[in-house]
Design brief:
This protein is α/β, with parallel strands linked by helices. The protein has two domains: 68 residues, no CATH class; 122 residues, Nucleotidyltransferase, domain 5 (2-Layer Sandwich), CATH 3.30.420.10. The protein contains seven helices and five strands, in the order ααααβββαβααβ. α2 runs antiparallel to α3, α5 crosses α6 and α5 runs parallel beside α7.
């Protein structure tokens, strides 16, 4: 690893990790015991908790196989470290603000059935305060979802819960927050979060949708569509 060349991406697309890549016999398990897989994934977890939210997704992937890692899992973990090698000086920079106004806003997204083992979807959110990242998360949803809409709605629910917690802390410190903007990719999920009409196809997630609607009505949050700027 010392002499290895740094890579430009955290994890290449050819890494399709699953439990099928785990050690399959005693001999392979013994070989993997000599490899510091748990230490390496633990180091990544420490980094994402402290200063590297950009690695949260990749740490979430490789840490799933700590119980029985295989060679492919180790190769993927080493790849993440090779990415770190080229960008080891990156981190979070908290700037002094000239204005005393601190506005909190968030971004939330979800994939659909990205986990190859149990086909669970991924939650990902980030919250920014005064231009500084203060909270982030990337992990698997606790249940298998039946549609992209359901996966996005569960992710949105988790983001709203995080918003309530962060808002409470800020207001306890004297920084009152207006309705906090959360941006989301799914137009359908945004529509359902604002629409009180009953839908047969979404009744199994109706409680989560009512929770989001209630927070919107209370002006705790507002949900908007994420619009990516096109670079020219």
């Amino acid at each position: 690893m010392v002499e290895a060349k740094a890579v430009s991406t955290p994890l290449e697309q050819h890494f399709k990790l699953s439990s099928k890549d785990s050690s399959k016999d005693i001999e392979e398990s013994k070989r993997m015991e000599s490899i510091p897989y748990s230490n390496a994934t633990g180091s990544l977890m420490y980094l994402i908790v402290c200063t590297r939210p950009d690695l949260a997704h990749y740490s979430s992937i490789v840490s799933r196989y700590m119980g029985n890692p295989g060679r492919a899992h180790w190769e993927a973990t080493k790849w993440v470290f090779l990415y770190l090698k080229g960008l080891s000086n990156r981190g979070l920079l908290y700037k002094h603000l000239k204005s005393i106004e601190l506005n909190l806003y968030g971004y939330v997204d979800s994939d659909y059935a990205g986990d190859l083992d149990k086909r669970r979807s991924l939650i990902g959110f980030t919250f920014v305060l005064g231009g500084n990242v203060i909270s982030w998360k990337s992990n698997l949803q606790p249940v298998v979802t039946l549609s992209t809409l359901e996966a996005e709605s569960i992710a949105m629910t988790e983001a709203v819960k995080e918003t309530i917690w962060l808002k409470g802390i800020l207001e306890e410190l004297g920084f009152y927050q207006r309705s906090i903007n959360i941006t989301c990719h799914s137009q359908n999920a945004i529509h359902l979060s604002k629409n009180q009409q009953f839908h047969e196809r979404t009744k199994h997630i109706d409680v989560k949708l009512h929770f989001i609607r209630e927070m919107i009505e209370k002006r705790t949050v507002k949900i908007t569509k994420y619009r990516q700027k096109i670079m020219r």
